[in-house]
Amino acid sequence: MDVKQIAKATSRMLMSYLTYESVRLVLAQLQETDPPRALWFQQFSTREKIQDGDRYLTELLVAHQELALRVMTVREHLAEEVLDYMPEMTRAAIQQANLGLRCSHLEKIVNAPPPVEQTQDPD
User: Fold this and answer.
1) Is the CB of residue 56 less than 8 Å from the CB of residue 21?
2) pTM confidence score
3) CATH number listed for the domain at residues 3-108
C-alpha cells in the first residue's frame, strides 16, 4: 500500500471538489449581482468537465480570466476554512459508517432464516 500516493490522489480529488463548491458559490453570487454573466458561467460550467478542477480552471482562464481568478480565490478560502476540520471529521465519519455497516450486517446474519438442510436421497 502506497500511502503517499493515496494521499496525493485524495488531495487532487478534494481540490476538484473544492473547485466545484467554489463554482457553486460564485454562480450564486453572480445570480444575485450579474444575471447575464451568471447565465454565461452556468453554460460554461455545464460544457466543461468540472470533475477535474485544474483542467476546468485552465479552460476558464482562457475563456474568462476574471471569473477564473475569482473561483481560485474562493477555492483557496474554502480550503483554509475547511481543511483544519477534515482529519478529525473524516476519521469520525469513517468509524461511524463502518460501525453502522457492521451492525447492519450482523443484524442480517442473526435474523436471517437458517439455511435449508438438504436431505440426501437414500438411493
Assistant:
1) no
2) 0.78
3) 1.10.1200.210
Instruction: Give CA–CA dist 112/108, Å, rounded.
Output: 6
Q: Which residue has the cell 478534494?
A: 14
The domain spans of the chain are: 3-108
Per-residue pLDDT tens digits of the chain, which is 123 residues long: 899 999 999 999 999 999 999 999 999 999 999 999 999 999 999 998 888 999 999 999 999 999 999 999 999 999 999 998 888 999 999 999 999 999 999 988 888 676 676 666 555
Query: Rounded CA gap, 16 and 13, in Å?
Result: 5
Q: In which residue are the cell numbers 463502518 written? A: 98
Give the C-alpha distances (Å, rounded to integers) separating 56 from 15, 33, 72: 12, 23, 11
